[in-house]
Amino acid sequence: MRVEGLGKTFAGGFEALKDINLEIRRGEIFALLGPNGAGKTTLISVICGLVNPSRGRVLVDGYDNVRQFREARARIGLVPQELTNDAFIKVWDTVSFSRGLFGKPRDPAHIEKVLRSLSLWEKRNNRMITLSGGMKRRVLIAKALAHEPEILFLDEPTAGVDVALRRDMWEVVRALRDSGVTIILTTHYIEEAEEMADRIGVIRSGELVLVEGKQALMQQLGRKELTLHLRDPLASVPERLARHRLTLAEEGHALVYAYDATADEDDGTGIAGLLADLEAADIAVKDLYTRQSSLEEIFVNLVKEAT
């Protein structure tokens, strides 16, 4: 799937999307992160054909999603954030109805396969009103998969569910990816992207500011910290160590040194020089450990750049 020069300007002049270019690889999990109002839902709505773009185009398996809407849309499944199911319809009926909307012939075997894969088979004759919030969200995924799409959009798939169910849903999404479905998800849970995504995109004020593999992103933008636990506490950082920009922590019992995670370990990190200066200053270190910044810290720093 390719997004080329996509822009969306609403009535009144608000520019929600600005020249978005993106390629989603077949069979990957792509996480789209961004603060509220950044343009995540607008981007998904345009890709899925729910909102017309002001400029640019979207190609789904080679089909233009405006000029060849039916062909493009048939390849997409969308799981919205809101739970909007009819309260009194049965699970089997609502999932089967969604398949029919795309002109697909009846296929009870496929509907059964989808329901079983989402642990919904035992609930197939239940009315929607009797299901928990987590089960209703699973039904939304089942409805989106009923017509056998190649690409599945998940808009905040675990919003409002508890931690245990969220992890269950992660397993469901991984299984879908392993079956060949391409997954694009938006999420406010940074750990969700860190846990599942192959690649991550960050959208800010309608602009796609970064697209990168998760591990590469952590390496490129991550920061490492070296914490040195001292034998004897310090009241302040000695002047002779000022060049290392150390931070005193744990009531003087530790020094924290930040460095570039991508630097050459032999000389670029500055750790060797720091340890030599500590020895020269007769500051004894009894223990040390390193910590790399999390995806959440990286994301917060990227968003801050806009302010």
From TrEMBL:
Keyword check for Hydrolase: no
Top-level taxon in the UniProt lineage: Bacteria
Protein name (Swiss-Prot/TrEMBL): ATP-binding cassette domain-containing protein
MF terms (GO), sorted A to Z: ATP binding; ATP hydrolysis activity
SUPFAM superfamilies documented for this protein: P-loop containing nucleoside triphosphate hydrolases
InterPro entries found in the cross-reference section: AAA+_ATPase, ABC_transporter-like_ATP-bd, ABC_transporter-like_CS, ABC_transporter_ATP-binding, P-loop_NTPase
Keywords noted in UniProt: ATP-binding, Nucleotide-binding, Transport
Residues in ABC transporter domain copies: 1-230
Keyword check for Repeat: no
